[in-house]
Specification:
Blueprint lengths: L2 H24 L7 H12 L5 E17 L2 E19 L2 E7 L4 H11 L16 E2 L18 H18 L3 E19 L3 E20 L2 E11 L8 H19 L2 E2 L3 E7 L6 H8 L4 H5 L20 E4 L20 E6 L2 E2 L6 H7 L7 E2 L8 E2 L3 E4 L6 H6 L3 E13 L5 E13 L2 E7 L2 E5 H6 L1 E4 L4 E2 L4 E5 L2 E9 L2 E9 L5
Parallel strand pairs: 4-6, 8-18, 9-16, 15-23
Antiparallel strand pairs: 1-2, 1-5, 2-3, 5-6, 6-7, 9-24, 10-11, 10-15, 11-12, 13-14, 16-17, 17-18, 17-19, 19-24, 20-24, 21-23, 22-23
Helix pairs in contact: 2-3, 4-5
């Protein structure tokens, strides 16, 4: 057999394995099968709905927190349930149950169909067929069970010890580990039967250092869709070094200047500004309702030349990736802004239908108890031609922002305020000293028009991002290369 044939067989085996795992946790215990699920969908379709789905979800998760060498918190949880959703026009109805018994699910189905009038629905049968094989974006490993509880605690203890060995001035060291495993099955009114196995891990470290009565914080984290075996000694060393270095830098920081100035954003995590101030404005629901700064502007120049913004849910093992979204649509790369021109939005099935566009694989929900919304996955700005050192050296006087902390964003306008957790003052192309208390103030669309240099050092964040929208939180990825931005307001306490 050819190499191509072997690959095809291997892919088919992988998909069978994943389907069996999902079915074992969600259907088999109570005798569910495609025929039984089809009957529930027919129950919804007895009223004239435009769309409907059933979202089966099983989830178990474990977390551990260590502070000063002592376990401060440890938890293990299991949750399973079904969300029944019906759509009629712009209206959505959701009923959910944490009881997987067929009678409970049928009751949920009868509840949601009430958003549409009784009458000829046009659907008398819903033959379900598993979606064509798609390439999984992560292993089916269960990270919760890849290490024993004692080994997880020992991992956190080693991380703490590594941090303390690097710096004697540490007052506090806090380490946190989370492991999650999910199985989902999505059954749609159009006959789609999709499934996914979703691992997720995150390891984080926060340190507080002191010097001459001053205390500063440093932090680092890493995560993705894989097993805990990835957190080897090299990873622990790197996290400890990053967190301690940031605290040390902040101990030496001076008050940040204030005023309008040129700012350089480092590669990777500073892409959270792009995510918050621009990405949300490109989600389909805001544009359908006409409340985004980008509404009705397809084909227009909305950013500087060279700025290309992409959302890609099909990046292997990334925190924001999904093999299929929560409506069963395969994920992929969606170009949103190309060379400064707005070319697309992010869609779930509802907004795609109402706007006459195609779903982009961005229908996401926090759990079976939540409605699907158009959400980002991994959103980033593509690289440009400059070396990062060249971009920093171009600064005559300005801020070089390496890491961001918290922030606030008005999604409809794109106006934002972001705190910089690690930043430097630059003069004549040379880094002079670290600064603290610096904030970036502006609006996303305007910032994108002020980009004048884009470096070639594109990077994603280390796998720590979580996005909130309408009370729902989902894991995401952000990224960018080093960027030079003109005329952006910096808030600080050090004067202009």
């Amino acid at each position: 057999m050819s190499a191509k044939g072997n690959c095809a067989v291997s892919q088919e085996n992988t998909n069978i394995e994943r389907w069996n795992l999902a079915e074992r946790h969600l259907w088999a215990p109570l005798g569910w099968d495609a025929h039984a699920v089809s009957r529930v969908l027919q129950e919804i379709a007895s009223h004239a709905v435009d769309d409907a789905d059933l979202y089966f979800q099983y989830r178990h998760a474990e977390s551990w927190s260590l502070e000063e060498g002592i376990v401060k918190a440890g938890s293990f949880s299991i949750d399973a349930g079904v969300g029944a959703r019906a759509i009629h026009g712009e209206k959505q109805a959701l009923a959910y149950t944490d009881v997987l018994e067929p009678d409970a699910v049928r009751d949920a189905a009868r509840t949601v169909r009430a958003i549409a009038a009784q009458g000829q629905a046009g659907v008398t049968a819903v033959p379900l067929a598993r979606v064509a094989a798609v390439t999984p974006q992560y292993p089916a490993v269960d990270p919760v069970h890849t290490l024993a509880a004692t080994d997880k605690v020992a991992l956190l203890q080693r991380l703490e010890a590594k941090a303390r060995a690097l710096e004697s001035r540490l007052d506090q060291v806090m380490a946190h580990l989370v492991a999650v495993w999910e199985a989902v099955i999505v059954a749609r009114l159009d006959g789609t039967l999709a499934y996914d196995i979703r691992p997720l891990v995150r390891l984080s470290l926060t340190v507080i250092a002191h010097d001459n009565g001053r205390r500063e914080v440093g932090s680092a984290g890493i995560g993705g869709r894989y097993g805990l075996e990835r957190f080897d000694e090299a990873v622990l060393d790197r996290l400890a070094e990053q967190a301690v270095r940031q605290a040390q830098v902040n101990l030496e920081a001076r008050p940040a200047p204030a005023g309008e100035m040129t700012v350089v954003l480092a590669a990777g995590w500073p892409g959270v500004l792009l995510h918050e101030a621009v990405g949300h404005g490109l989600e389909g629901d805001f544009n359908r309702k006409g409340v985004s700064a980008y509404s009705g502007r397809l084909g227009e120049q909305v950013a500087a030349k060279g700025v290309t913004v992409v959302d890609n849910g099909a990046m292997p093992e990334r925190r924001g990736s999904l093999t299929v979204d929560d409506e069963g649509t395969p994920t992929g790369e969606t170009v949103l802004i190309e060379d400064g021109v707005l070319v697309g939005y992010l869609h779930d099935r509802l907004n795609a239908r109402l706007m006459g566009m195609r779903p982009t694989g961005n229908g996401r929900r926090e759990s079976y108890a939540h409605l699907t919304l158009p959400r980002m996955t991994n959103t980033y700005l593509r690289p440009g031609p400059y070396a990062p050192e060249e971009v920093v050296a171009s600064l005559e006087r300005g801020i070089y922002a390496v890491q961001f902390g918290g922030g606030q964003v008005d999604i409809t306008s794109g106006k934002f305020v972001f705190e910089m957790s690690e930043a430097y003052w630059v003069e004549n192309g040379k880094i002079q000293y670290p600064v603290k208390g610096a904030t970036l103030i502006g609006d996303g669309p305007e910032v994108m028009r002020q980009v004048t240099m884009i470096a070639n050092d594109w990077a994603l964040d280390p796998g720590i991002g979580t996005c909130g929208k309408e009370g729902q939180s989902v894991p995401v990825g952000v990224g960018q290369p080093t960027l030079r931005i003109e005329r952006i307001t910096v808030g600080g306490t050090g004067g202009a």
